[in-house]
Specification:
The protein is α/β, with parallel strands linked by helices. It has a single domain, classed as Rossmann fold (3-Layer(aba) Sandwich), CATH 3.40.50.2300. Helices cover 45% and strands 18% of the residues. The chain contains five helices and five strands, in the order βαβαβαβαβα. β4 (87-91), α4 (96-104) and β5 form a beta-alpha-beta unit. The longest helix is centred in the C-terminal third of the chain and has 17 residues, at 119-135. 28% of the residues are buried. The mean pLDDT is 89.
Amino acid sequence: MKTLNILLVDDNEGDILLFLEACEAGKIEKRISVIKDGKEACDFFGKAIIQKQLPDMVLLDINLPRRNGHQVLKHLKTTEETKNLPVIMFTTSSSQTDKRACYENGVEYFISKPVEANDFQKTIELIENFWINKENK
């Protein structure tokens, strides 16, 4: 299986570090890029489309500076070149309103960030299994 290129859009340093550490023990080889701002994420996709260097998957937080995750998700799902890009909402929110809005706007999966550091590994397993199942379809 090829290297999975993930774009993590999150501004919380602690969550970023926990995610990166948990990824090291995963089953799939991954390359992780991090963007910490919603507007920067939208700008990134504009350049990535032109350069034909889109990530394989996006992990997107809701609470971001300048543009929130809902706005970034809408941008991705209404742009022809990125509308089929798998997006997983990876957020501290457990709000049913947030969850419903994400699914209405085309998110593939909604994962609430774990509270405990040890649970980040289980989250990585969920993400990897999502990817493996997607690739095997």
